[in-house]
Design a protein that fits this description.
The protein has 7 helices and no strands. It is mostly helical and 212 residues long.
Length: 212
Amino acid sequence: ITIVGVAGDTKYENLRRDIPVEVYIPWRQFPFVMGMTAYLRTSRDPRQVFAAVRSTVRQMDANLPLYDMRTLEEQVERSLSTERLVASLSTVFGALATFLAAIGLYGVMAYSVTRRTREIGIRMALGADRRRVVWLVMREVLLLLAMGMAIGLAASWMLTRFVTSQLYGISPNDPRTLTGAIAGLVLITVLAGYIPGRRATRIHPMQALRWE
């Protein structure tokens, strides 16, 4: 074998696997050729070049079949179809889990506020304004949120290495992803605590004092 050149590294079969060692051999040196893939670079829209490529190949050899033409972006999409399906399912289940967690958190906070209705009535009867009563509830919510965030971030930081092989084009600890997730959880938690707290302040103090 005579080496005539060295090519650069390229993702040949899979975008997520390590770059393998490859040897390119001229097609004339193969015993038989089942098919051949050719890449064409163009500055125009690739789909506008398809017709010109077919016409040029037909002029060179009318018996040469030309099939399955697609752009590089479509090739990448096909190679990542399984990963995109897993990502879509994970997104759906993640959204469902977040929704159930929000309902559970709201239920816990609503029950907690209901149990403290007499306490809230006494505070309001003694002159506490609605803002302080809401903050009384929100302080407990924010404490739970801080504890949950600390545990969740630490757990995610340790477990992300197990999903590294399933990711492409994004790091396991992507700042934008973590920021979006934290912002969503903070918003849900604040609403879950603010709504019951705000509702409790609308109860008349005398009615709250008679609450059983």
